[in-house]
């Protein structure tokens, strides 16, 4: 019988002192099918966040947006997405039949979110299917309440998205977005080769929220950029941190909610369990320290615009970087 959590997740759970509890809870709440309320939830969304992995093992976080109804669930083990990524999106290269995909359905203005991880099937010129391998809900903590509105595709207007800008580092525009962010998404993966118990390789994508300024940017003596973000109290599944324990590369996605700009960042991450930085950040249980490997900035790429954000009330007890 395949374990609910892989070796990396169990190792992090063990260090956090919750392994026995999660071994009991995990099989009850992580399913290989979607409950009806999850199927209905995905069907009402105007966007979803996806995690994928390229041929070099680099995870990427992406977003697909269409008017509500572009996702449907023919049965409890299948989602069909009537959407495809733009050619500049890293997902355009990773979306292949049989590929592992992590899916996060999130409705910020109601602070609801559900996860569905699975494999691509029935990829065609209008969209693709996702055969579900894991489905589970997440709590509403740390989600900033802002409502998205789908706008006409920019490619059909005079304000088509500008060309994507690839770089080995965060440029000035990217730095402004990261330093002012109150939200980012993180894609991680684990490899079957690293999991001898036989669990299939998979991808996960997750949400991170904090007060504006909760992501710190530093430049070291070698001009290498580093990002540091707090890890707050969560559900103790440790899907993201467990993946990083066995495969430290990750992909971040930052969204400019006023312009539709997208910033994809490839990083190599480590988990900081203690130290002065952790002690100096209110509310943090751990820190993620991430070396920037590369970035892709896509101006105006997302056909959504958002209202003003109401910060999650649980963030009152957390801090920002000085």
Describe the structure.
- The structure is a single chain.
- This protein has 322 residues and is an alpha+beta fold.
- It has a single domain (7-315), classed as Pnp Oxidase, Chain A (Roll), CATH 2.30.110.10.
- Helix content is 17%, strand content 37%.
- It contains 7 helices and 17 strands.
- The strands form 3 sheets. Strands 9, 10, 11, 12, 13, 14, 15 and 16 form an 8-stranded antiparallel sheet that branches. It has a 7-stranded antiparallel sheet with strand order 2-1-5-6-7-4-3, with helices on one face.
- It is globular, with a radius of gyration of 18 Å.
- It starts with 6 loop residues before the first helix and ends in a 16-residue tail after the last strand.
- The relative contact order is 0.19.
β-strand percent reads: 35-45%
Uncertain residue segments: 154-158, 193-200
Average pLDDT for all residues = 92
Tally the helices: what do you get?
A: 7
Helix-strand topology string: HHHEEEEHEEEEEHEEEEHEEHEE
Could you tell me the number of beta strands?
17
Choose one word for the global shape: globular
State the share of residues found in helices, binned by percent.
Answer: 10-25%
CATH homology-level superfamily: Electron Transport, Fmn-binding Protein, Chain A
